Amino acid sequence: MRSDGILTSVDVVPEYLESARGAFSKAGFAANRTRLIHGRALEVLPRLTDGAYDMVFMDAVKTEYPAYLQEALRLLRRGGIAVFNNALDAPHPDEGPLGVAAPEAAAVRDVGQLVREDERLIPLMLPVGDGLLAVIRNG
Ligand SMILES: C[S@@+](CC[C@H](N)C(=O)[O-])C[C@H]1O[C@@H](n2cnc3c(N)ncnc32)[C@H](O)[C@@H]1O
After folding, report:
1. Which ipTM score applies to this complex?
2. Which top-rank group of organisms is this from (predicted)?
3. Cα–Cα distance between 37 and 20 in angstroms, integer?
4. Which of 20, 37, 43, 89 could bond to 100 as cystine, CB 3.0-4.6 Å?
5. Nearest protein Cα to ligand 1, atom 5
6. Would you say the CB of residue 16 lies under 6 angstroms from ligand 1?
7. pLDDT tens figures, 4-61
8. Count of domains observed in the chain
9. Pocket of ligand 1 contains residue 23 by CB under 6 Å
């Protein structure tokens, strides 16, 4: 982040937010550099300011990824980046040969299609972990 950047994080588990608060403090970030919001992503994101964010990183409920994309595009400034974790989820032995559970896999595929169809967006698939899909909002 830039020296005047602020990180906003949303989670449904208060203990995780407290853990994050402790980690940021331990890493030397002043309390006013982070904003930790308790709640469900699809209830909190609509309350955040349009065009005010440089990056939106998503790693919560995969079936909600298409809705997160719509929220992220509204929140990002032009040139900002939306990043989806687990975009190339590897097969899991408990979940059969198709890998991730079908509705989750379908939602991740839907994000890919939405990104391909939107001429404002530039996608980049990064081979990190289970795949990071980065989407630049170019318009
Ligand atoms: C895979 S973990 C995120 C891990 C984190 N990105 C990291 O690298 O340490 C998913 C997180 O999403 C949170 N979560 C689950 N459902 C959510 C929702 N509807 N809205 C916001 N956060 C949610 C969980 O509590 C959990 O902390």
Report:
1. 0.97
2. Bacteria
3. 11
4. 89
5. 59
6. yes
7. 999 999 999 999 999 999 999 999 999 999 999 999 999 999 999 999 999 999 999 9
8. 2
9. no
